[in-house]
Amino acid sequence: MDSKVPLKQAKTAAPVTTKGLAELDVRTGMQAAALKQAVTDHLRYSIGRLQVVTTPHDYYYALALAVRDRMQQRWINTSQTYFDLNRKIVCYLSAEFLMGPHLGNNLLNLGIEQEARTALAELGQDLDTVLECEEEPGLGNGGLGRLAACYLDSLATLQRPAIGYGIRYEFGIFDQEIHDGWQTEITDKWLRYGNPWEIAKPEVVYYVNWGGHTEHYRDVAGNDRIRWVPYRVVKGTAYDTPIQGYDVNNCNTLRLWSAEAVESFNFQAFNIGDYYQAVDDKVISETVTKVLYPNDEPQIGKRLRLGQQYFFVSCSLQDMLHILDLVGVPIENFAQRYAVQLNDTHPSIGVAELMRLLVDERQLDWDKAWAITVQTFGYTNHTLLPEALETWPLSMFQALLPRHLEIIYEINRYFLDEVRARFPGDDARVARMSLIGEEGEKCVRMAHLATVGSHAINGVAALHSDLLKASVLKDFYEMWPERFGNKTNGVTPRRFLALANPGLRALLNEALGEQWPVDLEQLHQLEAQADDVAFRREWRAVKEANKKRLADYIRAHTGIELDPSWLFDIQVKRIHEYKRQHLNVLHIVTLYRRLKENPALKIPPRAFIFGGKAAPGYFMAKRIIKLINAVAETINTDPDVNMCMKVAFVPNFNVQNAQLIYPAANLSEQISTAGKEASGTGNMKFMLNGALTIGTLDGANVEIREEVGAENFFLFGLTAEEVERIKREGHRPADYVASNPELRAVLELINSGHFSRGNAEVFRPVVDNLIYSDPFLVLADYATYVACQERVSAAWQDKENWTRMSILNTARSGKFSSDRAIREYCDEIWNVQAVTVKL
Ligand code: NBG
Q1: Ligand 1 centroid to 678 CA: how many Å?
Q2: Is the pLDDT higher at 301 or at 572?
Q3: Catalytic residue at 382?
């Protein structure tokens, strides 16, 4: 076998020093020769494929295992160091972690991309082709899950002890295919070919109860206690994934729980011959972690979803207690050792579960347990949309979690006493603040539980945190103003700049040195270069190459040809009415009509690019996807217009293709109805990569504009205050149609079936919704949006000034590093310090 040759060569070629040997170690060596040998070994010993049938996927798997070996040493040392030093740990509880492909990022963070490229090249493989083979773990819906992933990257890079706790869904977010312009959902079988990154820990298991009832008993000391007699017990097993920090030895853990039946077979049932009942039990238990729920769908009646939340939260809290016992720290010190963050309300049952564990299982008295609980938890709110604020019907809650309901009643009793003492006679306030909603079907209000059980509550952008205090959590803010704060979101510059945009990385390294990925404020030094003609030329060359890369991808996946010299105008994010992809479409149809009416009209050529998934049950969002594709088909094939406009919908927007999309943008569309987008993080990823934003004063757009300067941002639209006022006074969308002939013509054209081969029914629901209801004020913002797009087109024609603005966007994006956000969380909420890890 020729695979042996290189090792012999390498061994004789390397100097025989300890250093040299370590560098060549097949498990830990960081040089190309060691990596090459490691890949060869894994192909043979871990994968067992014959050389003649190896595919790039086999090389992906082998390289992934080789890279995991290299992290293993750092991982073990990290855990050992945290263990030895007994330092406070962040436990980030999140039902979603949208990690994206691991391999490229791990190579980057370990600093061995070049070595891996060389090693593979010597084996006749191309690193980029191999990287594309990774099936990304899509264990999240969008921004919230991706934020959790960015935060894990920053925690490790900032050397903070942290564990991400979540769910190992067997099927993550569905894959999206587009057929005849419609979205179809395909199950995401991401584990089909195995997952080289995780290590199963079958010895780290916890048991989680379901259903049944509670009963009183007397303990040995004669105290009245309560025990929960469950109907079913499910077993949770840990699967650990290493989270390697950038340019440090710290390698933290993402611990995801998988559910199984306690016994594979229910022997009692088996013995009496009911084999199927026995197998059924196993199936029911395993269902708990089967599938990620898409957001934007009513959660009413989703019993399994509550089951998932309780399952992962209980496993995680039991794990924390177990670790505390291992290191011999008394339970009373729980809050000194753990800072537990609730990523939205999904894990908020943790408040009741920690109380149950402390009071029922560890026999602490109530007041002590409550003090620990409040000191331990922090709660991040990620949305003000009322339909997204979780509540659970009382009957369902009672059936699944009888003991927790009792605990919630007890928490509520003490809490409402406190409210009454603070605001005597204010019964309306008491009803508003209660953990139990009484209007309509009684329910448990999870946002209230999270708020009452946390010492710190934050929103995710300045505007959002202000609105939180003024609306959804107003009463709570009035009660505990000191608990409320803001933590503006951030994104990791490692994945979304260094990895996604190698061209820009090289340019930045040349201009600034190589520290900017861990000190993003250094980007400010680019400002001086914005006026340098030669630098601007290089900047444009990078952008143009990125646009070509994206155009190639789009051609391969849709057949649509885009010209990289055109303005790339991009909106990628979940499809939702509040994000207003249909406003973007109205502008496109406006331009189309103008060109058709006036063939002499000159507009600077633009490619309108969309991407994003719609929740499978979200009727309007799915129609909007169809509308985009229908408009695209008409425009792209019409020679009257397709020399200056084209439209493309990139199927299956995910982390992997996002890394191609953000770097290729000239214009970033952030056009949500003001007050509705809590923060947005795509807006930051675009800015980082030098796109200019067209946007409303919503979410983090406000801060982006503050940072980059009003003159480098295309602002339009109503403010959050104006939106509220209009809604209060009664929004009459028909008035906008009546007073704006162009808008009316655009809507009529869509309604006429012009974009749907004469079918006048397909888009009627979308158009009718706009004319008769328009809940997100699309029509109210239409005219200013179109006018603002004209300013964009004019600005684009001055290439030099556009490039200047592009450079300034990147230069002033430092604030939006997730490192800044994580430092704030660590200093102001978690009180967690850096720990150096040695090898
Ligand atoms: C989303 C918001 C975004 C925000 C991310 C991360 C939910 C519930 N919320 O605006 O819509 O950027 O959270 O904070 O997914």
Answers
A1: 6
A2: 572
A3: yes
β-strand 232-244 against 199-210: which pairing, if any?
antiparallel
> Could you tell me the CA-to-CA distances from 537 to 1, 37, 654 in Å, in that order?
50, 42, 31
**Residue indicated by tokens 């291992």:** 326
Amino acid, res. 151: Y
CA nearest to 783, candidates 608, 583, 603: 583
Quote the pTM value: 0.96
Q: Which pair of structure tokens corresponds to residue 697?
A: 């004063």
- For the CA atoms of 235, 251, 21, 13, the dihedral, rounded to the nearest 10 degrees, stands at 110
Residue 261: what pLDDT? 85
**What CA dihedral angle connects 712, 717, 721 and 725, to 10 degrees?**
170
What is the model's pLDDT at position 645?
Answer: 98
Task: Indicate if ligand 1 lies below 6 Å from the C-beta of 460.
Answer: yes
289 is catalytic: no
User: Is the pLDDT assigned to residue 6 strictly greater than 60?
Assistant: no
Residue in this structure with the two tokens 């408009």, named with its chain if needed: 631
- The single-letter code of the amino acid at 711 is E
699 lines ligand 1 (CB under 6 A): yes
Least Cα distance to 681 among 490, 813, 811, 823 occurs for 490
Q: Is the pLDDT of residue 509 over 50?
A: yes
Token digits of residue 838:
């040695």
User: Is 573 considered catalytic here?
Assistant: yes
Is residue 446 within 6 Å of ligand 1 at its C-beta? Answer: no
- 633-687 residue pLDDT tens: 999 999 999 999 999 999 999 999 999 999 999 999 999 999 999 999 999 999 9
Q: Which parts of 620-735 are beta strand (E)?
A: 645-650, 667-670, 692-695, 714-715
| The residue count for the chain | 839
Determine the residue of 383, 464, 465, 489 to mutate for testing ligand 1's pocket, defined as the one with the most ligand atoms within 8 A of the Cβ atom: 383
CA distance 344 to 94: 8
Name the residue type at position 429: R
Strands 89-93 and 162-167: parallel
Dig out the tokens for 458 from the structure: 């934050």
So what's the pLDDT on residue 297?
76
Contact indicator for 123, 2 with CB cutoff of 8 Å:
no
In three-state secondary structure terms, 538 is helix
**Quick one: pLDDT at residue 270?**
53
- CA 220-226-231 angle, to 5 degrees, is 120
> Cα 615 vs. chain centroid, distance in angstroms?
15
Element (H, E) at 266: none
pLDDT at 126: 98
Question: CB-side exposure of 415: number of CA atoms within 13 Å?
Answer: 28
3-state secondary structure of 161: coil
Do the beta carbons of residue 145 and residue 98 sit within 8 Å?
A: yes
Q: What percent of the chain has pLDDT over 70?
A: 95
Task: Give distance in angstroms: CA of 342 to centre of ligand 1.
Answer: 14
N-to-C CA span, the chain: 35
Catalytic residue among 448, 576, 587, 685: 685
Rounded to an integer, what distance in angstroms lies between the CA atom of residue 719 and that of residue 733? 17
DSSP per-residue codes, 609-636:
EEE----TT-HHHHHHHHHHHHHHHHHH
Q: How far apart are CA 502 and CA 305, in angstroms?
A: 40
Phi, psi of 235 (to 5 degrees): -100, 135
Residue that the structure tokens 């956000």 belong to: 821
Under 8 Å between Cβ of 612 and 574: yes
Per-residue confidence (pLDDT) for residue 15, from 0 to 100: 39
User: Is the CB of residue 584 less than 8 Å from the CB of residue 671?
Assistant: yes
